[in-house]
Write a structure and sequence with these properties.
259 residues, alpha/beta, Stationary-phase Survival Protein Sure Homolog, Chain: A, nine-stranded mixed beta sheet, two-stranded antiparallel ribbon, 11 strands, 26% strand
């Protein structure tokens, strides 16, 4: 990777969807200390994986300080950003980092990811945001060797490039020998969901989701293909999900004229 600036970042707000006590957020804090001396953490009090962009309505969200500049939130990742910026921080952060997620957030996964959702909420509020995930990351710090080694460099690389408004930079680290990683490669979202495995719960009429039924084939230039080839994937995500190519083809139905 090319040399990058060591310019201080300013205030950083960190969140995730795996919970305030997760290994990934601990490692992300370590990475952030090389970028800033003003780091805040506001993260869910428990695992909220799959929360997507849900927000809490019609009930209270509780935010409690558990250490200096470190808070647990009873709500979703989006709640952490919304309430944290409105009620906890005395000024907006200069950067929001979410993760490091336990497992990759690629392809169709980003539609469910609370890690990506937290970054999106920050972007909607006008703060540059980066979502970071570690492929096959679980509860062993060894799993995060790639993200721990290259996290700071990747974040600085993205900041040097600049993050456009209403855009989130989605980063995924491969699970490979860090010495074998080739660099950072831009990639589009893959398509991989074929269906869901539903398993019986612990009582009649109780069910839960099992592993995703995933397509083993990857498309060229996609995030999964890039990870398989030993690269760190970088995918810019936009807030606008309009199918613009289809919008231009849709005719106007003039109901008034047909009466």
């Amino acid at each position: 990777m090319a040399a990058i600036s060591n310019k201080p970042v300013g205030r950083i707000l960190i969140s995730n969807d795996d919970g305030v006590d997760s290994i990934g957020i601990t490692i992300l804090r370590e990475i952030a200390t090389a970028l800033s001396d003003d780091i805040w953490i506001i993260a869910p009090s428990e695992n909220r994986s799959g929360a997507s962009r849900s927000i809490t309505l019609r009930r209270d969200v509780v935010i409690e300080e558990i250490a200096p500049k470190t808070f647990r939130c009873s709500g979703s990742p989006s709640d952490c950003i919304i309430f944290g910026m409105a009620e906890i921080l005395d000024q907006a952060p200069d950067l929001v980092l979410t993760g490091i997620n336990h497992g990759m957030n690629v392809a169709d996964d980003i539609l469910y990811s609370g890690t990506v959702a937290g970054a999106m909420e920050a972007s909607l509020l006008g703060v540059p945001a980066i979502a970071l995930s570690q492929r096959h990351g679980r509860e062993d710090p060894v799993d995060y060797a790639a993200s721990r080694l290259y996290g700071e460099q990747v974040i600085r690389h993205i900041l040097n490039l600049g993050i456009p408004p209403r855009t989130v930079m989605n980063v995924n680290f491969p699970k490979t020998d860090p010495a074998s990683i080739k660099g950072v490669k831009p990639a589009h979202l893959d398509r991989h969901k074929l269906g869901d495995v539903v398993i019986n719960g612990g009582a009649p009429n109780h069910y839960r989701l099992g592993p995703l039924h995933s397509d083993p084939e990857t498309s060229d230039g996609s995030d999964r293909a890039v990870l398989n080839d030993g690269w760190i994937s970088l995918t810019p995500l936009m807030m606008d999900v309009t199918a613009h190519h289809l919008l231009e083809q849709l005719p106007i139905l003039d109901i008034a004229a047909s009466k």
